[in-house]
């Protein structure tokens, strides 16, 4: 009896959303005590990214009643991740983010099945992505978002009246954070603007003049970009730099340190080198939590119809 009561209490708030009619529900919403079980049994969700936002998303989705979840991420865990990516521990450093995150959530939330994929998103074929009802993005890369957007849009079909066929629409929920700021948005190909439609909303990446890097560096970032953009090619003769290769990043870091010492510049660290080379903005745990909660709620709303979805876009600032 205690176990049954505990289970009911666990899903109390979710059941309030799924078993009651309301004024802002979706057009096809049919409240039912069975709806939560149906979502857990039939809905398949893909989370792209298992970093700061991805860890929160996996937890939130599992606690929202989703039981069939996949997560894909090519990265391994680093010490610098531990302050905000709460599913990881010191002993996990060097392991796959997707594998460890899936394991940790399944240990804490009974009944959920999370399948990890430790690979690049481009390594999966189109059929893989078509198996999911909805795709949730927890990425820090514009290029990766564009790729998933193109995949989702490729499934879209139109009827004889040039209207999107509902069954071919692959919903995407895009979450992103940058320091204290973040956004969550709903992308329904053929219905709402897709990622490429408003890519111009993202601020341009910071660029440094090569003459400054080569002749008059003034900041730690100048020293790092000198090692990355100039020194690498001089020494390696055109060999492609891989920002995801730890040996390549270590080489750039060491060269940047030499450059900084030569000009009396402080502030070059390995984590800062990663941030400059990969254009990483420092992440705030509370921002990740807020944005992932908004994204998970949109997933539940789309799958169940228990409320109308976002009108495309939401921004948040916790500063």
Give an overview of the whole structure:
The chain is of the alpha/beta class and 319 residues long. The chain folds into two domains: 13-203 and 282-317, Rossmann fold, CATH 3.40.50.720; 210-277, Orthogonal Bundle (Arc Repressor Mutant, subunit A), CATH 1.10.10. Helices cover 42% and strands 12% of the residues. It is built from twelve helices and seven strands. It has a seven-stranded mixed beta sheet with strand order 3-2-1-4-5-6-7, with helices on both faces. Helix 4 (52-62) crosses helix 12. It is elongated. Its EC number is 6.2.1.64.
Tags for this model:
single chain, 319 residues, alpha/beta, Rossmann fold, Arc Repressor Mutant, subunit A, 7-stranded mixed β-sheet, 7 strands
Question: How does the SSE layout of this entry go?
Answer:
Blueprint: H1 2-10, H2 12-18, H3 35-42, E1 44-48, H4 52-62, E2 68-72, H5 97-108, E3 113-117, H6 126-130, E4 134-138, H7 142-154, E5 172-178, E6 181-187, H8 210-215, H9 220-236, H10 246-263, H11 270-277, H12 285-304, E7 313-317
Helix pairs in contact: 4-12, 9-10, 9-11
Integer count of domains: 2
Principal-axis shape equals: elongated
State mean pLDDT (0 to 100 scale). 90
Number of helices: 12
Distance between the termini: 45 Å
CATH class of the largest domain: Alpha Beta
Query: Structural class, from helix and strand content?
Result: alpha/beta
Q: What fraction of residues sit in β-strands?
A: 5-15%
Q: Report on the biggest sheet.
A: 7 strands, mixed
CATH homologous superfamily placement of the largest domain: NAD(P)-binding Rossmann-like Domain
CATH topology of the largest domain: Rossmann fold
Number of beta-strand segments: 7
Compressed to H and E, one letter per element, the order equals: HHHEHEHEHEHEEHHHHHE
Strands of the widest sheet, in order across it, are 3-2-1-4-5-6-7
Radius of gyration: 22 Å
- Summarize the amount of helix as a percent range: 40-55%
Residue stretches low in confidence (pLDDT < 50, at least 5 long) are none
What is the CATH architecture descriptor of the largest domain? 3-Layer(aba) Sandwich
């Amino acid at each position: 009896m205690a176990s049954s009561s505990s289970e009911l209490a666990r899903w109390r708030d979710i059941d309030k959303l799924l078993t009651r009619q309301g004024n802002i529900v979706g057009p096809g919403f049919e409240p039912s005590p069975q709806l939560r079980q149906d979502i857990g049994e039939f809905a398949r969700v893909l989370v792209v990214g298992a970093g700061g936002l991805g860890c929160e998303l996996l937890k939130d989705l599992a606690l929202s009643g989703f039981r069939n979840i996949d997560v894909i991420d090519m990265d391994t865990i680093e010490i610098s991740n531990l302050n905000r990516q709460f599913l990881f521990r010191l002993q996990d450093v060097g392991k796959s983010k997707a594998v460890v995150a899936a394991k940790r959530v399944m240990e804490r939330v009974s009944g959920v099945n999370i399948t990890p994929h430790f690979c690049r998103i481009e390594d999966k074929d189109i059929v893989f992505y078509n198996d999911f009802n909805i795709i949730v993005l927890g990425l820090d890369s514009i290029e990766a978002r564009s790729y998933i957007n193109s995949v989702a849009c490729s499934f879209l079909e139109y009827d004889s009246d040039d209207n999107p066929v509902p069954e071919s629409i692959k919903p995407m929920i895009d979450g992103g954070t940058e320091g204290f700021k973040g956004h969550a948005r709903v992308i329904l190909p053929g219905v709402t603007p897709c990622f490429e439609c408003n890519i111009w909303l993202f601020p341009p990446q910071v660029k440094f003049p090569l003459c400054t890097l080569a002749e008059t560096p003034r900041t730690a970032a100048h020293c790092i970009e000198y090692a990355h953009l100039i020194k690498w090619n001089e020494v390696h003769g055109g060999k492609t730099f891989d920002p995801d290769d730890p040996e390549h990043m270590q080489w750039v870091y060491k060269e940047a340190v030499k450059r900084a010492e030569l000009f009396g510049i402080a502030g070059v660290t390995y984590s800062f080198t990663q941030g400059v080379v990969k254009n990483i903005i420092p992440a705030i745990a509370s921002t990740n939590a807020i944005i992932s909660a908004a994204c998970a709620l949109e997933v539940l709303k789309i799958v169940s119809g228990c409320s109308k979805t976002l009108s495309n876009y939401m921004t948040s600032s916790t500063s």
